[in-house]
Design brief:
Elements: H1 35-42, E1 61-62, E2 65-66, H2 108-131, H3 135-159, H4 167-183, H5 187-199, H6 210-219, H7 223-236, H8 242-259, H9 262-275, H10 279-292, H11 295-306, H12 325-334, H13 338-365, H14 369-381, H15 388-402, H16 406-414, H17 421-437, H18 441-454, H19 459-471, H20 475-488, H21 493-505, H22 509-522, H23 527-539, H24 543-556, H25 561-573, H26 577-590, H27 595-608, H28 613-620, H29 622-625, H30 629-642, H31 647-660, H32 665-691, H33 695-704, E3 709-711, H34 714-717, E4 731-733, H35 776-779
Antiparallel strand pairs: 1-2, 3-4
């Protein structure tokens, strides 16, 4: 109690007084007026080394005994501070840490770790190569990973117990190898590798890989085994994995369709639609009912397909409800992100399935396709796909077009004139196309204007408008419409093709060539584009390039007579008659009624005297069938002057003169009668000589005969001569001059005369042959196609 001091009762001071008192040294408000402080700041006076103070706990000493400073050790204070050592809480005075112990790379454990790392890297590289499309490299990496993994297993068995083997690594290596075999269509190796995985009991859940084996058997068209493995996989997958079970059942249903077992396929798809309905299963169910011809079930399946939920957000989500800039930025960011793209793809796929199913079942579910389309339209209008109803109506009009019922098609399309702008533009585009095909350019232009006004960004409408302007001869304005169509849709091949034709009509050949070459990069095997490129080069007087592009054209359409004759024409202009003959003759084989080709071949035969009479007569016989008698008569007269002993030519001349009513008929008939008798006598002598009657006598008679000779019928005696060999005529002796072989000029034509053209037929007196314009080959495609279905 000696040390206890009680506060006096009279002391009325505040118990909390004094807490606001502080040392004036810490008064920072007066530092600006402190001369010593300002001098220390401006000079090195304030940067002198700090004075080391000895911090002593005021409670460390009691009766001369030092108390342990445990309270401040955590802050780095120790007893050494009392002995004058420097304050070093981080231990920097001890110097740098000793170097790390070097790894022993020769140890077995380190080798195993490095090898395992290399195997993982090879598996990753194989997967990356597969995703990049380099399947061969992916397979090589997978094989290398398999080899190294087997080495790794052997090393682990030597160092550790078998229980320490990395099964996950082995599983991933084998699975990747099997997948790469399958991707490279090495199905036998893939099945063997999958069997290794499935039969290994140490791999958990390996049974589900039988789905992959079933897929391989499906690709091999081994449908029975595919179904077997799908069902085995289905048995090994627990019911909690509902989504995977549904996908396997869908594969089973598709396999049943491929085998024609539609009732089993229907059972699979009906189960899927009752458990977890989806678009693919609904569409396949419609196909199965269509195959068995069940109308009522087709309707019910179509309604089920319509009712499948899309599970996507509405478009209103991407419309800003206010002018909040932050909200607008967020909406702009998500408007075209990956999720939005996925939603668009799902919606497009749903619309495709519904439209295809409607076009498939509409003609069969009712008495007529129109009634069937009406039923589908009503069902679609009552669903979430209301906008598809108008597309179905347009498809109904297109079906009328396929059936060549143009009036009904026009009536159906005219119903859309009061619809919204998109549908109105589509219908007006098709109407413009129809009227363009019927050469009603005024109506076509009117509906093209309606389509453009309804949707200025419709490339098909702009193309059709350009076509109507092109038909009226305003090529500059047509080019402007085609350019606008290309600005709206750079992939509009119709507009690009038409603008090339327009530039060609304007004689702007370089620009036309650029258009067609661009189009060739898009449509590599388009015959029209190849022809136009060759034609432009021909107009630019570059026959070598024209020939090169025409050669590409006939590789695409080898039976096109127009392209073959054009090649013959170009080779002829270059002076290469043999190549020209080859292509002209090929053109004649595919289209024997082309007069220009016939004229060239006839001139070539006459100039070279290098032909077979029968082929020559056959080449020129089309002149008779097309009614061009005068041309045929002149041609055969020319042949007769060069080869007066040709019987076939005389027969044609007699027939022509008889049909036309010329007086020359008697002259040609007399010559024909004489040649026929000479031929008959010659045949009798040859026959008698073969019988051996009077061999020496026959020789004497032959020697006593006149010295006159005649040229035998090449068509009969030289038909086996090779092509390109000059024909040599065999000479035969005529009978004696005193033998009767001439006929009176007044005698009628012998009744034994055989018409080389067959029985008399009624032939037209004239026949018009439409000349093929240089652009007729491709201008028929000038009109835009119907809208995509």
């Amino acid at each position: 109690m000696q040390n206890v001091h009680l506060a006096p009762e009279t002391d009325e001071d505040d118990l909390y007084s004094g807490y606001n008192d502080y040392n004036p040294t810490y008064d920072t408000e007066e530092l600006e007026n402190d001369t010593a402080f300002q001098q220390a700041v401006r000079t090195s006076h304030g940067r002198r080394p700090p004075v080391k103070y000895l911090l002593i706990d005021s409670f460390s000493f009691k009766d001369g005994v030092t108390r342990p400073m445990t309270a401040v050790r955590a802050a780095g204070f120790t007893k050494a501070a009392l002995r004058g050592s420097a304050f070093d809480p981080l231990g920097q005075s001890r110097g740098p840490a000793p170097p790390l112990e070097a790894k022993n790379e020769d140890s077995p454990e380190e080798k195993i770790r490095q090898l395992e790392k290399k195997v993982n890297e090879l598996v990753e590289e194989s997967c990356i190569a597969n995703s990049c499309g380099d399947l061969k490299l992916a397979l090589e990496k997978a094989k290398d990973a398999g080899r190294k993994e087997r080495i790794l297993v052997r090393q682990r068995e030597q160092v550790t117990t078998p229980e320490n083997i990395n099964l996950d690594l082995t599983y991933s290596v084998l699975l990747n190898l099997a997948s790469q075999y399958s991707a490279n269509e090495m199905y036998a190796e893939a099945l063997t590798t999958f069997q290794v995985i499935v039969k290994n009991k140490m791999f958990s859940n390996a049974g589900r890989l039988k789905v992959n084996m079933g897929n391989i058997y499906l690709k091999q068209r081994n449908y029975s085994k595919a179904i077997k493995f799908y069902r085995m996989a289905l048995d090994q997958i627990p019911s909690v994995h509902k989504e995977m079970r549904i996908k396997i059942m869908q594969n089973i249903g598709v396999t049943f369709i491929k085998t024609g077992q539609y009732s089993d396929a229907i059972n699979s798809f009906e189960h899927i639609m009752s458990m977890a309905p989806n678009l693919k299963a609904g569409f396949n169910l419609i196909l199965s009912y269509f195959a068995v011809g069940d109308r009522d079930k087709m309707k019910k399946a179509f309604q089920k397909l319509i009712a499948v939920p899309l599970e996507i957000d509405e478009d209103d989500k991407y419309i800003s409800p206010s002018d909040d800039p932050h909200t607008n930025l967020v909406i702009e960011a998500i408007k075209n992100d990956r999720l939005r793209q996925m939603e668009r793809e799902r919606k497009a796929m749903a619309e495709k399935y519904i439209m295809t199913a409607a076009k498939l079942i509409a003609p069969v579910i009712e008495t007529s396709f129109a009634v069937g389309y009406d039923w589908c339209v009503e069902v679609v209008k009552a669903s979430q796909y209301v906008e598809l109803a108008n597309d179905l109506e347009i498809n109904k009009a297109i079906t009328y077009l396929r059936q060549k019922d143009f009036n009904q098609a026009v009536e159906t399309l005219k119903m859309f004139e009061k619809k919204d702008s998109r549908v109105k533009s589509a219908a007006a585009t098709n109407l413009s196309f129809l009227y363009y095909l019927e050469n009603e350019f005024a109506q076509a232009s009117s509906y093209a204007d309606l389509a453009v006004n309804s949707d200025r960004y419709n490339p098909s409408a702009l193309t059709n408008k350009g076509n109507t302007v092109f038909a009226n001869g305003d090529y500059e304005k047509a080019a402007e419409f085609y350019k606008e169509a290309l600005r709206n849709d750079s992939s509009c091949t119709e507009a690009l093709y038409n603008i090339g034709l327009t530039y060609k009509r304007l004689n702007r050949l370089d620009e036309a060539l650029d258009c067609f070459l661009k189009l060739h990069t898009i449509l590599r095997n388009s015959a029209q584009v190849l022809y136009q490129i060759a034609n432009v080069y021909e107009l630019m007087e570059d026959p070598h390039q024209a020939i090169e592009w025409l050669m590409q054209l006939i590789s695409v359409v080898p039976t096109d007579s127009r392209a073959l004759s054009k090649l013959g024409e170009l080779y002829d202009s270059e002076g290469d008659k043999s190549q020209a003959f080859q292509y002209y003759y090929e053109s004649y084989r595919y289209f024997p009624s082309n007069i220009e080709v016939i004229e060239w071949l006839g001139a070539y035969y006459i100039d070279t005297q290098f032909f077979n009479y029968s082929d020559f007569i056959v080449v020129f016989s089309p002149f008779l069938f097309i009614g061009n008698y005068q041309k045929a008569l002149d041609t055969y007269k020319d042949i007769h002057r060069k080869f007066p002993e040709n019987v076939e030519c005389l027969r044609f001349l007699v027939r022509l003169c008889t049909d036309i009513g010329l007086k020359e008929v008697q002259e040609y008939a007399t010559k024909l009668k004489r040649l026929e008798k000479m031929k008959e006598i010659r045949e009798q002598r040859i026959k008698s000589g073969r019988d051996g009657s009077g061999g020496p006598r026959s020789r004497r008679e032959g020697s006593a005969s006149s010295g006159k000779y005649f040229l035998t019928d090449v068509g009969q005696n030289c038909s086996a001569s090779s092509k390109g060999e000059r024909l040599s005529a065999k000479l035969r002796a005529l009978p004696g001059t005193n033998e009767p072989y001439e006929s009176s000029s007044n005698k009628e034509i012998d009744a034994s005369y055989v018409d080389p053209l067959g029985p008399q037929i009624e032939r037209p007196k004239t026949a018009a042959k439409k000349r093929i314009d240089e652009d007729d080959f491709a201008d028929e495609e000038l009109g835009d196609d119907l809208l995509p279905e």
